[in-house]
Structure of Carbonic anhydrase:
Amino acid sequence: MPLHPDDHFLYALSSNNAWAGYKSHQNPHFFPKLADGQTPQIRKPFSPLSNSPQANRLPPVWLGCSDSRCPETTILGLQPGDVFVHRNIANIIAPTDINTSAVIEYAVAHLKVKHVVLCGHTSCGGAAAALGDSRVGGVLDTWLAPLRAVRYANKEVLDAMKDERARGTKIAELNVEAGVNVLMANVTVREAIEERGLQVHGCLFEIGCGRIRDLGLGTKGRGGLGLDGQEDVVRGRHAQIVFRGGRGEMSVK
Ligand SMILES: [Zn+2]
């Protein structure tokens, strides 16, 4: 019996937990070996997603990295038709990227998804490249520029970390935070948050153990007034607005 059957995001996390436990039980070396590197060899035909907005279980939209070790449907323990997906190198969310923007627009405005999940991961090659000082070449340096900007904006924190893996994980987390900020500034996303309680999440997939960690960003964080189950009060000189469940109520003092 799955936990949280009514909350698709929490259901996905509990499903992921069960899958990771099962995989580890089957083969204790599976995740540690996977964390050492990727060698994709099998390519299966693409299965078209069922995108009917009338479906009872609306799929979340998943924004993730193209890395072959992070196939969202598999790691969430889901099936084709369960999740709407956009993946790119290092899960970079840039407001001027028409590809990412079109996926968000379609998922939020047309499919009416209830959850937007931006998920980075440990051992990300894009993160490692952004932490390096050499040119990658071609269009890749341009693509990675927002991630390099994250690196320079957090130079002190990152430089203080001597462990290479920990530094890679930290910049992956900071990259998710930057991406969630872009999502929270997207007009379509903002309208859906205010009108129907769309939830925006920031997560990190830990390849070494197979678990997804919720970073507590987005509508749970500072950008979502009253959307984390708590009340947020904005006080003015003569009145205050209490945000509760995504709605604000003004009262005069
Ligand atoms: Zn990656």
Q: What stands out?
A: Confidence is low (pLDDT under 50) at residues 40-56, 222-227, 233-241. The chain has one domain: 43-252. Residues 164-185 form the longest helix (22 residues).
